[in-house]
Design brief:
The chain is an all-alpha fold. The protein has 2 domains: 1-51, Orthogonal Bundle (Arc Repressor Mutant, subunit A); 55-183. The protein is built from 9 helices and no strands. The chain has helices at 6-25, 33-40, 44-50, 54-74, 85-99, 101-109, 115-130, 139-158, 165-183.
Length: 188
């Protein structure tokens, strides 16, 4: 099976999306392969061509998220104004979260998942690489504070009936900017 084949990617996406839909309605231990294949309208053999079981599907779905999330850092363009790097960096992360809100929300609420910690570790590692902190020894603290603060903002927003994504993004941006600037940004 060629992972780069368009049909393979399409089938995996179909299975993954229907799996996420089922996870939104029930705990993973109640989800059956039959339920996934029925919902995705594929046969069990097709499922087993791609995954060994439900937990392999969960693991590969989280790997998929991590691979796509890491691409935002690979493609991150550092702005010329160093004072804007932190703000634009976290805006990029927030945009990814907003674009993938359903999948991330469902996966990160799974008690067996370590996805949230992995996403934060990747964000912190890349934040240290891109953001020119005046005191790099404080970067871990500041970036973890920012990341977990974003988690709190997103968590709160998910339970609001009608939150304004633009206002939420502006609020998060202000909070992140103030936090990052608290340590100072290195200037030449």
């Amino acid at each position: 099976m060629n992972e780069n084949d368009r049909r393979t990617r399409r089938t995996q996406k179909l299975i993954r999306d229907n799996f996420i839909d089922l996870m939104a309605k029930m705990p993973i231990n109640e989800i059956t392969i039959q339920a996934i294949t029925d919902k995705a309208d594929v046969n069990r053999r097709t499922f087993y061509l791609h995954y060994t079981d439900i937990y392999d599907l969960l693991s590969k779905t989280e790997d998929y998220v991590m691979n796509h999330f890491s691409k935002i850092f690979d493609e991150f363009e550092i702005p010329t104004d160093e004072k804007m790097i932190g703000s634009i960096f976290f805006r990029t992360v927030l945009n990814y979260v907003e674009d993938n809100e359903k999948m991330l929300g469902i996966l990160c609420r799974n008690p067996d998942s370590k996805l949230m910690q992995k996403l934060i570790l990747l964000t912190v590692a890349n934040g240290k690489k891109f953001i020119p902190f005046a005191h790099p020894e404080n970067a871990d603290y500041i970036l973890n504070y920012c990341c977990w603060g974003m988690v709190g903002i997103i968590h709160t927003a998910m339970f609001q009936n009608d939150f304004d994504a633009a206002k939420l993004s502006t609020l998060a941006d202000k909070l992140l900017t103030v936090t990052i600037e608290a340590d100072g940004i290195k200037t030449n």
